[in-house]
């Protein structure tokens, strides 16, 4: 089988490629979208956010990765590289004691040789227009809390521009966002998967088989409504941003459109057909 790339796109929320925490890999063996998690700590890595740094690390790793890996091998390997990075930089103990400072990433990978899609974390995929997206329950709850907080701020006299400049709702939920990192790679109601260099459960990777003539889209969660074309996905995103820039009604999020940014999050989209 071969792959026909139909369209691809990547854009940072700040319209600056160097600050974009999303990554896209296309090789003879893999197609992957990587989403470096927005930092909730203070440490910079070579003057880069943890999201940018881990994205760059994983893009390079997947580019060189063995085509013979299965899903479990892949997740274990990529996670071990993050662990190695902590040790190389004498950051292991800091990352262990302060989870908000960890390098964290979600990703979706298509293994061309095995014709399998592997989902880890909250990236998303469409297979023949069927959506696969594992959302974090903690994020959904905290998005509701942020929505309520900002709605009250508006009722109490703040303007939408005030919130765009200083997202007090985000500030309000940030302590819980940091605490919720404790649910990473755990089983239970609030558990979720993320690559962060510490103990994971690679057997929990979501695997989706692909067949000849399947139309597949891989994307980060920067698209609130993922559609089967880039144009439609971008149109939906524009509608959300125009009608609900704070992301508290149509699509509730833990962060909104900040003043000076072009979107609420980095976004990556690639569509291809298995031939």
Question: Can you characterise this structure?
Answer:
This protein has 275 residues and is of the alpha+beta class. The protein has 7 helices and 10 strands. The protein has helices at residues 50-64, 71-88, 92-97, 137-155, 160-165, 168-179, 230-243; strands spanning 3-11, 22-26, 30-36, 105-111, 116-120, 124-127, 130-133, 206-209, 215-219, 267-274. The strands form 2 sheets. It has a 5-stranded antiparallel sheet, with no helix packed on it. It has a 5-stranded antiparallel sheet with strand order 2-3-4-5-8. Strand 6 (124-127) and strand 7 (130-133) form a beta hairpin. Helix 4 (137-155) packs antiparallel against helix 6.
Short synopsis of the structure:
Helix content is 33%, strand content 21%. The chain is an alpha+beta fold and 275 residues long.
């Amino acid at each position: 089988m071969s792959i026909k790339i139909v369209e691809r796109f990547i854009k940072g929320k700040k319209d600056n490629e160097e600050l974009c925490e999303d990554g896209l890999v296309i090789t003879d063996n893999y197609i992957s979208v990587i989403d470096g998690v927005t930092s909730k700590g203070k440490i910079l890595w070579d003057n880069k956010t943890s999201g940018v740094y881990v994205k760059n690390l994983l893009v390079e790793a997947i580019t060189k990765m063995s085509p013979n890996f299965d899903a479990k091998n892949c997740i274990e390997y990529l996670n071990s590289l993050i662990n190695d990075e902590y040790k190389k930089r004498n950051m292991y103990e800091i990352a262990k004691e302060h989870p908000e400072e960890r390098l964290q990433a979600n990703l979706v990978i298509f293994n061309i040789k095995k014709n399998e899609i592997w989902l880890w974390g909250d990236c998303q995929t469409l297979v023949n227009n069927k959506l696969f997206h594992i959302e974090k329950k903690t994020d959904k709850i905290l998005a509701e809390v942020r929505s309520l907080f900002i709605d009250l701020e508006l009722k109490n006299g703040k303007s939408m521009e005030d919130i765009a400049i200083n997202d007090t709702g985000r500030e309000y939920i940030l302590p819980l966002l940091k605490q919720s990192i404790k649910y990473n790679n755990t089983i239970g109601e609030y558990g979720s998967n993320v690559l962060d260099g510490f103990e994971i459960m690679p057997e929990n990777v979501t695997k989706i088989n692909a067949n000849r003539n399947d139309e597949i889209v891989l994307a980060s969660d920067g698209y609130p409504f993922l559609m089967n074309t880039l144009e439609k996905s971008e149109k939906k995103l524009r509608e959300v941003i125009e009608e609900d820039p704070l992301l508290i009604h149509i699509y509730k999020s833990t962060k909104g459109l900040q003043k000076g940014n072009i979107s609420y999050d980095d976004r990556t989209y690639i569509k291809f057909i298995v031939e």
